[in-house]
Amino acid sequence: MKASCILYHSNIMSIYKERWIKQCIKTIREQTYQDFDVFELNYGDDNTKLSQLYDVGGNKHFYEKIKMNNHAEAMNYLIDKVFLVEKYDICFNINLDDYYDTYRFEKQIESVNEGYELISSEYRFISERGDVDIIGGLAGLSTDTMEGLFKRDITPIAHPCVCYTKDFWVKYGKYNPSEIPMEDKLLWVRSYSKGAKLHIIKTPLLYYRLHQKQVSNGI
Fold first, then answer.
1. Helix extents (H) in 66-200
2. What is the C-alpha separation between 124 and 134, in angstroms, rounded?
3. Residue 179 in 3-state DSSP?
4. CA gyration radius for the chain?
């Protein structure tokens, strides 16, 4: 299985604390599954190249700098490149202000092998103050049905921990930049209504950082 992970950022050093970025990259580098390549896109005004500053793990690193209007455009461009140009089978989304369980890639590949098309997991919230200050989490996602979660107006798929398959991307489409900050949830709703096989792993594989400069807040 040909695997990749994507890093996309805009003026990141002025938005996120460097220790957040370092911790995120450390958990990529220490994944138990290491047979993946890294695609990095800088879509901002700065010249930051994370794969030059840090050891991000993986096998090959691909870097581009292209000015774009928002993160939805950046994601669409990168995922199109991964699946449609470079012909990868799966793609792990990475949010650089969060961090991950080192078994994340391994467990999500197991779910891909079970036939799921898009996979996320349970998660835990962490505070802006500290790297291990767990302040709660959204548990119980994997014990309810997708229908039940959507009816409760809960976003069932944790976007920072998504593993896409090529089948999902080809069949169900892209993010709509006009829908920011709900572009991920609305994509999940549309794809599920069309029969997409979505899955939430019961183990918390994502540590989701709460802070004022999150992409979901409009950055």
1. 71-80, 104-113, 146-151, 166-172, 183-193
2. 7
3. helix
4. 16
Superfamily of domain 3-217 in the CATH hierarchy: Spore Coat Polysaccharide Biosynthesis Protein SpsA; Chain A (3.90.550.10)
DSSP designation for 82: I
If you write DSSP's letter for every residue of 18-72 in order, what string do you get? Answer: HHHHHHHHHHHHT-S---EEEEEEE-SSS---HHHHS---SS-EEEEE---SSHH
Among 64, 71, 70, CA closest to 85:
64
For the chain, what are the domain ranges? 3-217
Query: pLDDT tens for residues 40-91?
Result: 999 999 999 998 889 999 999 999 999 999 999 999 999 999 999 999 999 9
Structure tokens at 175: 């993010």
The C-alpha atoms of residue 210 and residue 202 are separated, in whole angstroms, by: 21
Q: Which two tokens stand for residue 17?
A: 């604390």
